[in-house]
Amino acid sequence: MVSVNLKGIGVRPEVTVAPDDGLISFSNVLVNETADKSFPITNVSSFPVNFELVSKVAGVDNLSKQRQCLLVPSQGTIKAQATYEGKIVFQPDHDSNNYCDQLLIDIPNQINAKTVYLRG
Predict the structure, then answer these.
(1) Which of 1, 6, 86, 100: disulfide with 59, CB 3.0–4.6 Å?
(2) Residue 101 reports pLDDT greater than 80
(3) Given the DSSP bridges, would you call strands 83-90 and 35-43 parallel, antiparallel or unpaired?
(4) CA Rg value for the chain
(5) What is the helix, strand, coil percentage profile of the chain, to 5?
């Protein structure tokens, strides 16, 4: 048996999101029409990270029970030091000023969770 002393620095995954305030607004969208917006998720780590987009808190629901915001894709992998374009499709089926969603960008072992707020 041999003992070896190792020294190193532990690293954790980290991403940044734009816009900095985390607010994505769709403004006015006609009933039964769709609008989409993209937002960048940048991996600032030196290794690939897996992510999942998770809806945490939603406002008013569509009458059809179909989600008012679709996340495309809802999960994936971002290469080291790369930027990934997340896409959100907003599809209201009735008139309301209360369409909203809180979207968590879930990265395993990330210390500071990133959140995006959607409003339509």
Answers:
(1) 100
(2) yes
(3) antiparallel
(4) 18
(5) 0, 45, 55
Token reading at 37? 């917006």
Count Cβ neighbours within 10 Å for each residue of 58-97 and write b for 16 or more, e otherwise: bbeeeeeeeebbebeeeeeebeeeeebebebebbbeeebe
In terms of Cβ atoms closer than 10 Å to its own Cβ (0-12, 13-18, 19+), residue 53 is buried
Q: pTM for the full model?
A: 0.80
Nearest to 14 by CA among 86, 104, 109, 102: 109
pLDDT of residue 28: 86
pLDDT at 78 over 90: yes
SS3 106: strand
Structure tokens of 26? 């769709």
Q: Is the pLDDT of residue 61 over 90?
A: no
